[in-house]
Design a protein that fits this description.
Chain lengths: 259, 161
Amino acid sequence: MSSFPKKKRPGFAKRVWRSIVRHGAPNTNRNRSLAVFTNLFLHIHPVKVRRRAMRFRATYYLGGLTAATFFLLVVSGAFLMIYYRPDPLRAYGDMKDLQYVVWMGRFLRNLHRWAAHTMVLLAFLHLCRVFFAAAYKPPREFNWVIGVVLMGLTLLLSYTGYLLPWDQLAFWGVSVGTNIISAMPAGGDMVKLLLLGGTGVGGNALIRFYVLHCFILPAVLTVGIALHIWRFRKDGGVCLPPYEGPDQQATTASKGGSP
Amino acid sequence: MLLDDLAEQAEENEPNRREFLAQAGVASLGVATVGTGTVAVGFLSPAVLYEPPKKVSAGTLGDHPEGTVHFSPEYKLYVIHRKRRLYALSAICTHLGCMTRYQRDSREIHCPCHGSRFSLEGEVLNGPAAEPLPRFPIALQEEQLVIDRGREVGPDEALVI
Ligand code: HEM
Ligand code: FES
């Protein structure tokens, strides 16, 4: 045995806490970086972030807001799934129940719908911002491609969700949309048949769109967003214009940049 | 000496085996991809369609007196008896597939989706539709009118009565 004085064993609560959080209080630089490195959610941040990149005007926080809206849609969508059944005989009635019978149902449905429109708008504005900042240029060109794919997936989610209320607008909207698909020169009719599970919009189409809307597309989008954010880090974070002021720290601080 | 021998041996044998294994890996990945694709497309193709048949019955001649336009939402067609001629028109708009409606007051067929208008003969009166409404052959079989939605006939064909 060693000759060191025996340390008192920490208490149970302390040991449980230590098993989850390995670093000490974030009051030293080392512990502060450990807090970021050892946390799955915080380690999204790059090792080093410039103050200029954190300013609202640098990004308008559009990408983060798009991701936050997606999270809102996942949560509200999961709630809607509790009452909504994708069956031609039930779907429309379930929507009506959500509106008039289920407590807070109308709130959740409206939340889902407004968030869907907002997500499309935010993703589009985010793309515009990236474009005007010329952030699609090397080394970020592939992340731009991922971003365009994510925009497409967002539109597909809106489109597949649109059929689910099973009202006149939904029915004819999807009839017209899938006829546009079938005008595709090669394999258009095939894609339409596989998408609808028939020659027209019916029960098969409803359940296919439901599976796409509630499982396949959100799963693909989640993986895509993870890839997008990971590459954003690896490509060096926010694309900033060359700095021209005398002293970055001083100027950004005086303009109220957040830490 | 011994180490050098081993290194030489490895250089001679390893790349071949590695190449083979890599190629086998890529090949099996290809087979798996093709297989998954085939299964996916096959699985998604509906084996049975619970949709109305192509050949449908439209009742007897007595059900369609002169001057009537009958609309069947199930079979998506009109049966029209006009000027002693009986014929069947598809009710699906040739623009992007919405269901059209017969307008009694103007004696025209209108599409609610983007405003196409058709005459009772199926001709386009107003776009965006570019093609006339398809006309289906109609035949008398043992007093029953039978319409074949799977075929199309020319714009003047009709049962003359
Ligand atoms: C995991 C994620 C999601 C789930 C589980 C989900 C689930 C649902 C369900 C069950 C419905 C039918 C109820 C209703 O129509 O109100 C629905 C509708 C809808 N969803 Fe989603 N959704 C998700 C994500 C999204 C996203 C990301 C968008 C668009 C960006 C979106 C857009 C829509 C739209 C436009 C409707 C029709 C809303 C309405 O008519 O009220 N959803 N969703
Ligand atoms: S579908 Fe009839 S006008 Fe467009």
